[in-house]
């Protein structure tokens, strides 16, 4: 056993508004610089749809994530060391600009500056990369709300679900949609880290945040295809890769990420998980992809277990972090209540951002006979959700959704004084679930311990030296 | 401390990496040290210098508080504030309120779209500079241009075609001042028009221009009705403009219907309350033709055909009346109906020979009962006394015997307890075959249903047959009560309106689902005591017959006793209409602290005439009126002329002569005083020596001359029929496709064969972005952005007041709106002095106002037209009131900057001396002895004005709230009302307090509900405290008994089909191209900031980058279009060019063109019109509905943004085809 701490996030897709506030606030803070225009550390996809970049889940093409070799050992899908070395200078799996989109602006000045004309002046579009006139043919959210009829049907997961007999047509009768916000998953077994030839990518010991050193990155870009979620981006201005940092400068002060902080749907929960690092490799090597999500739950350990606490302390996990782990909304949602599932666990990176799958309206054919629908009667086919969250196994998704329905039935009974319906969980637990899902006060959604792990003397020194580079040279603190 | 980091990796770092510290078994883990200094890069990026609280002024109702981050004096970004006052522990908090639109605003501050300096149209600048160089003073310089048709034509034709030149504040403000003054002295000040929208979103910026405009004597145009955001059903049913639950009250609902309101997309900051209440067990039903975002949050989705919502609602009403009022009467519902609705009131049945029709309410005058206003005292049948009695609370009591203006269940004459009978069905004297108008998809007809009646003898000896509103309702809905005649045998009876089976043919919704939903809704209300709610919005409110649609839905809510309950009732969210500190704001914005009355014009009627859309009106009213009536007029515009004449609606410009001339002529003819002037004018009107300007809108003396637009994008956003604006109002290049003659010749409007295009002499816009309205303006003034100004914001979505604060100074040469209008006021004073202008006589025509005794002016809902000899013209009674005022423009600035002398004693229903002095102490007093306002409290700065507004308003000043409630106690004879505010009596919200934290407003009788220890929901003052509704019966109205309402067949709510005029009238040659005709729907955009801001690079990136229309994939296929093709979308009114997004999400036969996409970004030319494509309003057209013009009768009386014609824009058909070639028209 080797216990480590991880900052983790759960997103409740059942509450996601698809508003993209997270994308905008993230972009303003981090990626509206030259070279980063096309990057969305956080993006939101309408599903079914092709996502951003286009078809990012097609691992046959991108060679992202991990797979198992003949002996059942983990290997990067991109290949072994030799294969990856060959691809160093030319990597056919590298996404191109068209897979994202070409960022553009408009000739806004023309509106004020135009001389007298025969027709009303207009601001036409211009590429932010080349500065040339460009026609707008694709964007980072082109298929928003099922726009562009062909794209929903081109959804990789929808095709996969249909391949196993789901019969989803995406006509008015069986139409459905939901949103999928995505950030870097700050995985326990990150493929980007493993793929980096420069060793520039690392997972921080204190909080598990995965970062690309802008000093060490040499721009090989092996991480870009290696990340199966396509959450590493290449900055064409600096020639280095960048990715979501989990807003570590905020985490270090005990604040949630910007995307979480500004999430209007209040779908995001952040907190600490303790995990056993010694179990990571085995979990990632689980043979049946359908069992990986359970294996990850086994890697996550009970923060109240005395043995776990002792081991955590021995490994340098601070008291405040152990305490936070014991009061972690994320732990409750993932581990205690089984309401959250990882996205594409079959990529074997052990993602640390999990999702509560959404409920949806009742199917038209049963609507007039039913009060509250169960998971199987809802518009979003379980087969589709299963492709996203449980490697094609509908059972875990069904369980989660029916647990949400159980919370509702329980609360409805209380509201109107009806008898308590039968449920998997005790009424007190359902009450607690309700509080976290619905009332969700800010301190309950986010429990993030501050990062500074310093003695009093160090703090005193740091306080006086913040902002001065003299301290950098000494390896002191800077702000 | 050392830098320590560890990583797992297969690959060892080759060069400068420190050695691994540990290499455990398995080879999958690795730890390393050092190399983390670079992390400061991101920490530096995050660091900032200050955070300032501000917000956005966009009419989205969000009214979210934001933190603006500033670094090195530059605004870097914004995140939502999360520190709203907390809600109770049992419900979610408000944080974080905001959306991607708000989050991207900071882009505008430094964007290349920003207007940095004052600009002038080049042609105009040249003429002006020329005239000034010749030594003319500004007034004469403007006169030299404005009196020269050739000069005017030169710059008007250039509108919208580029060619701005830089100006400066002195020059630009002198031009505006000179034009306003020249117009006032040449044509009358009511030719000066101001247009700004939705004050609540930045109320002092609104007030700045309105105050300036009112000091000029100009007319301020309404917006809420013009946007079709006003639900006319609200004044009709409640006598209230709009009052709705705050969004957090959704969390109290036990059952939620979402009907035409796309909550996640358009109410983003509060949508979480909807998502979250589901976990409380609340069932959610969505009603929408398309699979909209809000449908994804629903448990059940009902999918009616586009525009058929009222058929669905009528069928639900049928189920509820049948099961809960007739078969198994539900006491909870019935008791509510008796006490709080007009259901028990007696209606006179009119004998029409072969059939009967419901007439008007039986009143005390009919029965010879004495009283102050007997024609406004109405009867119920009291089961206790066994006779007809007038209950407390009718409008007669409101303006008469005030001790009885309450909803106590008492006989107003004796005070005896009463028990009103809802129905005569058990004890009737007769059953009469009654005709109800019916508007089917194939045309109009009548349905005849049996109604139980009793007979009574009127004072004049006539025998009257009467029934109750309840009985009319059950008969109209087709409930089988064993009375015989036509009624529904079962829910499956498709032949009888309004059964579930009947609606299926219209809506295509499964009848079983309708029945189930209606039962669920009603059962939940019974189980939760009224906590069934319907969130409704633009999807069903932007229609021509929106009032009917809304009334059919409101009926469901009223049947189920849900109004005036937390978690129940209607929740209408269309526009940020709730300005909370109302009284103080109104004083400042109307400048009534100096002079009364203001000129407040309903916008839709103004634009209908000003842009000559009446000339192409496609409505013949006979198509839409009751089959039982002959319409009074065939042309809708004629009704509007009548409405102006009868004092129903305002009409500015009012007369075809300037007020100064009218006064001069009256004085010359011997008028000695104001009464004499008034009498002389009445004579002139009667003799047709003076006429209403609207009756001859194309006569140059009747043109509006100046239009100042601020806080609005009139031409790019709200101008329905925008190409007609270009043509008639501006004289600019336009894309009107086919101007066909009107469907009916008007009788009251003079049709001139020739029209001078370009009525406006000066279009002035204040903006911070160069968008469509500034592009077409003559003078462009740069305003401060929302992060550069002082102001306050409020909304109906939450109970807080919160500020705009300057995070940085106004950029470049921009100024705040308050400073700009102060600058203009100073220019007016200076130009007037320089030109030695003498005080100007003016006559203000004031319509009969709601919430004043004028609402008794025209009793019994009778239409009596003095111009037809049906009555005498009596100002304030049968026609508008006429007020003589004198305006001294040399004092305009003096008045603008000081809070005027009317405040202490005249402006309010209470003595405001204490507040007046408090404001003086806080703001300082005017120190310049040369000013008229010397010694008065200062309003020179925006913050002064904010604090004056807050000090003078009941929602922000606890003492005033208590005073106002005490006043209401006296008016109603009720006690204990003031307790609602007493706990906050010492509270005075100030601007600086709002900067610390959003402040919760104080409960006030200004609104109909309470937020004292509860979430705000409307009408609880009525349902709990027994304050009457401000309707004629004092109750919520099912029945409207005005003659014009009857003419349109809408006494009771009913289903009416949408207008379906063909897109083109003349023969159209498709030239072999594939075309399709579709319903043209303009819902709100996800990727523009509310209704005006479709140009933000960040937001345009997140969708399609320019104007987009959304078509069903099969409709696109039918014209051979694939995703992202360019389409041309047109009808007779104009043509749009846009790219297509194909989808399976919207039904065939209709299309979306998102509201207020704008023609200045990425829009090519249209081959059809030969010029640049329009924004979304190219194909729309103003359709005024005459029933919205009614005035002088109870709740159907004029109020600014309260009642009036709506600028509905949904009933439109277009032709769509692929555009083969794209021409950007860059020449």
Structure notes:
The complex is a heterodimer of chains A (479) and B (1227). Chain A has 479 residues and is α+β, with helices and mostly antiparallel strands. Chain A has helices spanning 21-30, 59-62, 81-86, 97-100, 109-113, 149-153, 156-163, 191-195, 223-226, 248-251, 258-261, 280-284, 292-299, 306-314, 319-326, 329-336, 382-389, 394-416, 427-439, 442-445, 456-465, 470-473; strands at residues 3-12, 43-47, 66-68, 74-76, 104-106, 125-127, 178-182, 201-203, 210-212, 232-235, 240-243, 268-276, 341-342, 353-356. In chain A, the strands form 6 sheets. In chain A, strands 12-1-14-13 form a 4-stranded mixed β-sheet. In chain A, strands 2-7 form a two-stranded antiparallel sheet. In chain A, strand 3 and strand 4 (74-76) form a beta hairpin. In chain A, helix 17 (382-389) packs across helix 18 and helix 18 (394-416) packs across helix 19. Chain A starts with a strand and ends in a 6-residue tail after the last helix. Residues 473-479 of chain A have low confidence and may be disordered. By secondary structure, chain B is α/β, with parallel strands linked by helices. In chain B, strands 7-6-25-24-23-8-9-22 form an 8-stranded mixed β-sheet. In chain B, a hairpin with a 4-residue loop joins strand 15 and strand 16 (387-389). Chain B is globular, with a radius of gyration of 31 Å. The termini of chain B are far apart. The interface between A and B is large, with 133 and 142 residues.
